[in-house]
DNA sequence: AAAAATACTGTACCGTTGGACAGAATATAA
DNA sequence: TTATATTCTGTCCAACGGTACAGTATTTTT
């Protein structure tokens, strides 16, 4: 079993060698002839043709893990849709890389904990809508909130602490908390961090 | 680490004991008090309240695998949506069970290969018609950090709590804090919120 | 050989956060 | 008119986040 790292430049990061002493660097062109069925291909999204390449490799029965510098749910979904078994940050730590390798080598899927819920949760809701009633765009997170809650959400999403939000909106910190609790509940997130990620990932323009 | 098998009748199949000598049977009522965070709960869909139970267990940080006598896409999606990490046939072979345990214990997802493509294939197209975004100037900020600091930064930026980062990188929470302090100082941000905003795209930032 | 950087862990402290209870005023809808 | 939704406020408390001291071990640089 060999770990191939396919990047635009064909470079091999020290992190990768540390994780897999057998790691091999490769350009996107000439790998397809040299791989074996139980190899793992770590394919960076800097390679323009990564979706097509993934498809071809997967068709041959090769395990593919996609490496991305800027992970997002759309790209993750695309990667998995093309047949990749993993989707992980290009700069992931050695321990994480090993873990990913272990998982995908055993027929598992690795997408990172926070992406998982988003990717699968999204697909579940999408399927629910199609089979049940349809309509309702999932992107409109903010529209689920009241006007005041939207104000709080936007302030928080721009990095403000509760105290700062309170000052901005001229209310007490307690009220900010109350709005936030409602926001978390409505959007199904656990804290302000997840809120930021949820809104940021849906391409909301916060402060142009 | 303990493997709990939760069924309607509280029975424990010999196959399960063969796979995990430490296997424990349980009814749906009284498990929640006795489980530890790194336990694996194998929950049969014969238990009527399995979705709600899954949700509660997952909220506590427990790894849940759903066992179904008649696997299908819809049930699989629901299981994963509730936070389960695995979905497998109740009568799965010993080797498969071991493999599933290995995968989910390492933050992976196990759903069976043919189910995965079906599940993800459809939902991807639903999200297809949305704007694609290219790679980010995030790398410049990251290059100021040491390798380990980068790993921590990435984990935090994806929404993980200190405790989760610690588990991912297999270090203590204290060490995560140490790295974070260094990161904040180097990048000139006051907390993880500002770090997210700094790394995630400087498009929408409020307080420079 | 000495210094600096890196990685890791410990205890203690304190501010922040979010939930658990709560309650109250106003406006809109049934 | 009784609900329901929205907005606002209160106290208490457990968990989390970040800093201030600390320290040790290893590697790299000077």
Oligomeric status: homodimer
Number of domains of chain A: 2
Adjacency order of strands in the biggest sheet of chain A: 2-1-3-4-5
Give the structural class of chain A: alpha/beta
Number of strands of chain A: 5
Q: What number is the mean pLDDT of chain A?
A: 78
Instruction: Report the uncertain regions of chain A.
Output: 123-139, 202-208
Approximate strand percentage of chain A: 5-15%
Percent range of helical residues of chain A? 40-55%
Note the total helix count of chain A: 9
CATH architecture tag of the largest domain in chain A = 3-Layer(aba) Sandwich
The CATH class of the largest domain in chain A is Alpha Beta
Order of SSEs of chain A, N→C? EHEEHEHEHHHHHH
Distance between the ends of chain A: 49 Å
Radius of gyration of chain A: 21 Å
Report the largest inter-chain contact: A-B, 65 and 61 residues
CATH topology of the largest domain in chain A: Rossmann fold
Task: Give structural notes.
Two copies of one chain form a homodimer. The first copy, chain A, has 208 residues and is α/β, with parallel strands linked by helices. Chain A is built from nine helices and five strands. Chain A has helices at residues 14-19, 50-59, 73-81, 94-105, 113-132, 147-157, 162-169, 173-187, 192-201, and strands spanning 3-6, 24-26, 40-44, 63-68, 86-89. In chain A, strand 4, helix 3 (73-81) and strand 5 (86-89) form a beta-alpha-beta unit. In chain A, helix 6 (147-157) packs across helix 7 and helix 6 crosses helix 8 (173-187). The longest helix of chain A has 20 residues, at 113-132. Chain A starts with a strand and ends in a 7-residue tail after the last helix. Residues 123-139 and 202-208 of chain A have low confidence and may be disordered. The interface between A and B is large, with 65 and 61 residues. Chain A binds a DNA duplex (30 and 30 nucleotides) through residues 146-149, 161-163, 171-175, 177-181, 184, 190-192.
